[in-house]
Fold:
Amino acid sequence: MGETKKVEFEYSQIDSERMRLNVGPQHPSTHGVLRLEVELDGEIVTEVIPHIGYLHRCFEKHCEKMTYPQVIPYIDRMDYICAMNNEWPYVMGIEKLMGIEVPEKVEYIRVIFAELNRIANHQIAIATFGLDAGAFTPFLYLFRDREFILSIFEKASGGRLLYNYYWVGGLAADVHKEFKEDVLSIVKQVRETNKEIADLLLYNKIFIERVANVGILPADVAISYGCSGPVARGSGLAFDLRKDAPYSIYDRFDFDVVTGHGEVGTVGDCFDRNIVRFHEMEQSCRIIEQAIEQMPMDGDVREKLPKKIRPPKGEIYTKAENPKGELGFYIVSNGTDKPERIKSRGTSFVNLSVLPEISKGYLFADLIMILGSVDIVLGEVDR
Amino acid sequence: MGLLNKLDDPYYGGGIILGKVEDILNWGRSKSDWYLQFGLACCAIEFMAVNASHFDFMRFGCIPRTSPRQADFIIISGTVTFKMAERIKVLYEQMAEPKYVISMGSCSNCGGPYWEHGYHVLKGVDRIIPVDVYIPGCPPRPEALEEGMIRLQEKINKQAIFNKRKRLAEEEKQELIIDN
Structure:
């Protein structure tokens, strides 16, 4: 347990002037078009005000105008790094409203693709976090591996980034014949690279000095702000919807919920949030291996696709564990083929709200690391 | 490319390049374009993939710069909202001449999927800044962005540098004639 890096300052001793600084919306380390208004006292951050809305793309307005299947591509574009995970709670909600039971094979493919996309998301998160710290090499290694995962998605859905693959009642297309072998080879590759990344970046002395004891998020603050995903788990909260409220077939798999426990510093610092992502990749590999073993290869993934999607009148809230946290959709149906209203609980939006709380009192350079460790996607913040 | 092939030409005795100053300047310019490191939306992720190991954008001589003052061209990679459009215009104006714009993806080409109901989305970035190369796709594949870069290099190679003002005045005169 080291001491925190918060800088205590005696205002009475040194005469200093407060300065307001604008970070973004064009900034290489804001992970998108986020604008931060920072108040500095010398080099110490005293206040952070995030200004959002630079990527507001009217998701809820589009939902009112589109039919149910047409909404899926817009959901892809919310959190564009993990589009497979995004589609899942939405189609799950409509399936529950309409009372559709999806075939076994579909469930397994959905689990495998969601976990593969979780790995791809965490690879980007760790790669860009390394970039923020000035480490360029891990970025190249992780993006190399990500391309293999994308190639599997491309074979199945035709898209590299935005898939429109999870449909109500099934999937857009079946997987190819050598699917199992391909996925297992990717899992092997991910594990090999993870060993390298641990040595190259995460347990590197320079990196640890930079991120340990920075941006500490206590567990009670994480709960009161509604944080979820690796941000909450980094603070020691074992909160994972796959375990706590199992959806789909997650209760069949054996995996652990990774939490941060202050390995090199204090519980809930930037290092913990990232090491949780790192170990979650291994847990995802375990789930994929079990799913590949149990998955039936025969069966039609499109047999349960309804011809008309007209859910009965009613409302439903579905949630799923996204790589970034809990993503929920509140769907109100009025009995027609267009939804009355869809409200989404954006994970990144909720996680970003904790940034002003945890970045006060640190140096300005640490603010960039804290923002990188929260791992936001502006498409989901602004929607 | 064309210029270097001349070095092997026995006609010139080898090792000598005869060409217009314009050609040689353009050859140098087109092979060392630096871009503004600036991502907007989904396309920015593909843009990052182009920078990474599989596609290696730097072999085109493209190096990311974080300041618009040092950048030769800007890639508009994603949806341009009204709120962001002002900032993009400022960024474009801050870049030093000669400057180029690549519009990447449907959103910045024409509004993309947000064209019809998007009350908040600019229907094409060419409404605020001039665009040199349009790349279709939602999002475009990394190979498409590379193709766009090659097209931009072709355009730079063909550009005339000297007597620019005189030529522009002539063009304006002709436009006036056409308008009248």
About this structure: The first strand of chain A starts at residue 18 and ends at 23. DSSP finds 15 helices and eight strands in chain A. Chain A has a mean pLDDT of 87. The interface with chain B takes residues 25-28, 32-33, 53-58, 61-62, 65, 73-74, 77, 80-81, 124, 139-141, 143-144, 146-147, 160-162, 378-379 of chain A (CB under 8 Å).
